[in-house]
Sequence to fold (272 residues):
Amino acid sequence: MVRIAVDDPDDPRIAVFQGLRDHVLRRRREQPDGDMAGVFVAEGDVVVERALRAGYRLRCLLVDAKRTKPLPAVIDPELPVYAAGPEVLQRITGYHLHRGVLACFARRELATFAQAAAGARTVAVIEGVNNPTNLGVILRCAVALGVDAYFLDPTCCDPLYRRCGRVSMGEAFATPYARLDPFPGGLAPLRDAGFELVALTPSAEAEPIDALELDQDHRVALLLGAEGPGLTEATMAACDRRVRIPMSGVADSINVGSAAAVAFYAVGQARR
Fold:
């Protein structure tokens, strides 16, 4: 691969990587009608490789000029690879080092509900999670623990955001997902498709999640809310069941990412 030296952080050839600390530029990427809505940035060799294997099209890369480690073999050797020194990288990323490589990918057209739900038995439905770290943890756990697809309400952050992809280690790139209309109305497609809507809540009135018993073909949608407020009352009222993870009594709940892992595992066990 031929490296193209870059010594100006404002070089237009690497404009897509600029402003990773800047909330305004981030919104330009995340808004559907934004001028950078058609791309996303992935960070790190493993994440880049998993995005490629999931079928996302790679447009260009930015690497540390001091990097000697070969790039993943799945990367097309004809793609532009821009190489920058630490001062330029710091201006772009906000810190001295990044995980070896930044990659710009083209987004795919967002799947419809029917496309994402096809053949799924267990899905995660996420409301109001706008912290990329929490969403990344949820998505990594979903892949590891047998969740077939996930659905986001309009207030959830972008699952392709750089930090979300980094935390999930790119595991979720191959998992089908779609956006739903605002809840509770947006839950209608799940109900129409035969999913039982199961709300996760710390409420003592909810049934223990380890009491679930599910047939192999039972379609379950496990609903998770944001750290702190959890699911809205309107959303929980629209669900078929409310379940809780039993606590020791010292704390009334755990982080939403940790709760997701426990809940996904419990649903898998309930099918056995």
In short: The CA atoms of residues 89 and 96 lie 7 Å apart. The mean pLDDT is 90. The two ends are 50 Å apart (CA to CA).
